[in-house]
Amino acid sequence: MDSYEITANAKLNLFLRVKGILPNGYHSLYSVMQEIDLADDLTVNIYPERPFGFDLKCIGRNDIDPEKNLCSKAKDRFLSSLRKKASADHSIPNAEAWHKNQFPFIEIILTKKIPSESGMGGGSSDAAAVLMVLQEHFGNPFTDEELNHIAVNVGADVPFFLYGGTCLCERVGDEITQLESLNGIPLLIVKPSKGCSTPECFHAIDSRPLPEFDEKRYASYIENLNNEEAEPLKRFLEGGDLLTNDLEGPSVEKVPEIEKIRKALLDSGAEYSRMTGSGSAVFAMYENESLRDAAFEKISNDPEFSDCDVFSSNTI
User: Fold this and answer.
1) Which domain range does residue 120 map to?
2) Of 126, 236, 275, 278, which one is least surrounded by beta carbons within 10 A?
C-alpha cells in the first residue's frame, strides 16, 4: 500500500466581480482568491495489489454527502484522462495497463473542517488535493496545463488550489495569475447555519443589470497589489470601492444574517469585511491578532450568533 497525507486549505474571495456571460454560457468572473490556514485533512491510500475500486470515508461534518463529494469526481476525471492519454502515448509508464483500465484500488479518508455552502471552497480544495496526490503517484503524467484542464472540469474553483497563495482568478476560474503574497493577515470568519446555493445566486445575478466593471482601475489596482514593499493588509485595502462582491446582494436576500454578521464584524474593529464566494460565510481582516482575538471572544459569546460557526484564521 502507498499512503499519502495532504492538507486541503480553504480559500476566501477577497473580492468577486461578475463581468458577464461567456460564449459557453458560464459566468466570466474576476476575483482575488486567497488561501487560508483553515483546512481539511486527507489520507489517500492506494493498493496496487487489489483490483480497481474506490472507497471514500468522510469524517468530522455530518452535513457532507460522500456520494456527492468532489473527491470522487476528481478521481474519475484524472483516471479517465490518464486512460485516454495512455491510449495515445504508449511511452507513458504502464500505458498498456492504464489503457485497459487496470488501476489500483483507491481509498480516501477525508476529515472535514471547512463548512459546506460557505463559499470557502472546501470541496474544491479536497478535489485539488486528490488530483495532486494522483499526479504524484502515477509519475506526473500530465503537464501543468493538462492538470489545470482536468481541474476546471471537476469544478470552477479547483484550479486555484493547484496554485494556492494569492491569485487573480478570471473567466470561470481557469485563468490564474499568481500575485505577491498577502500572507499573515489575521482573520475572523463567521458562517451562519444556513448556507447559500451558488446556482441560485448566479440565477439572481442574471435577472438584474450587472454593476459597472472598470477594467483600467482594476488593472491598476492589481499592479499595485504586487508591490511587495508595502504591508499585505495596506496593499489590499488600497482597492477601496473596488473591493466588493457582486454575489453578496442576492445571498443576503436569501440569508439576511449575512448582513448582520458583516456589520458586527466591522463594529468589532475589523479593517475590512466581506462575504466570500456565494456565501454564506463572512470574513473580516484585522490589523493585528490581538484585535482579532478580542473580536473572536465577542462574536463567539454573542447570543445573536449562537448558531454560527466562528473560525479564527490567517491568510497564508
Assistant:
1) 2-178
2) 236
Tell me the C-alpha to C-alpha distance, in Å, between residue 281 and each of 68, 208, 220.
21, 23, 29
Where in the sequence numbering do the catalytic residues fall? Answer: 11, 157
* C-alpha distances out from residue 28 to 11, 23, 51, 90, 207, Å: 19, 10, 42, 38, 16
Nearest to 269 by CA among 293, 252, 245, 248: 293
* Residues 250 and 149 grouped into a single domain: no
Tens digits of residue pLDDT in 132-169: 999 999 999 999 999 999 999 999 999 999 999 999 99
Model confidence pLDDT, tens digit, residues 96-106: 899 888 999 99
Q: Tell whether 83 and 231 lie within a shared domain.
A: no
| Of 315, 276, 310, the residue nearest 187 (C-alpha) | 315
Query: In Å, how far from its chain's centre is CA 29?
Result: 14
Instruction: Give the C-alpha separation, 299 to 283, whole Å.
Output: 12
Query: In the chain, at which residue ranges do the beta strands (DSSP E only) sit?
Result: 2-21, 27-47, 53-59, 105-111, 166-171, 175-178, 186-191, 272-275, 282-285, 309-314
Give the mean pLDDT of 230-248.
97
- Which helix (H) or strand (E) is 105 found in, with range? strand 105-111
- Residues 165 and 178: beta-carbon distance below 8 Å: yes
Which of 130, 152, 178 is the last residue before a domain boundary?
Answer: 178
| Amino acid, res. 45 | N
**b/e sequence 49-65, b meaning 16+ C-beta within 10 Å:** eeeeeeebebeebeebe
- HSE toward the beta carbon, residue 25, CA cutoff 13 A: 2
Residue 159 CA to residue 140 CA, distance in Å, equals: 17
pLDDT band at residue 90 under the 50/70/90 scheme: confident
| Short-list 301, 262, 276, 271, CA closest to 117 | 276
State whether 159 and 300 are in the same domain: no
- Determine if the pTM surpasses 0.90: yes
Indicate the residue among 143, 162, 178 that finishes a domain.
Answer: 178
What letter represents residue 229's amino acid?
Answer: E
The answer to whether residues 48 and 197 belong to one domain is no
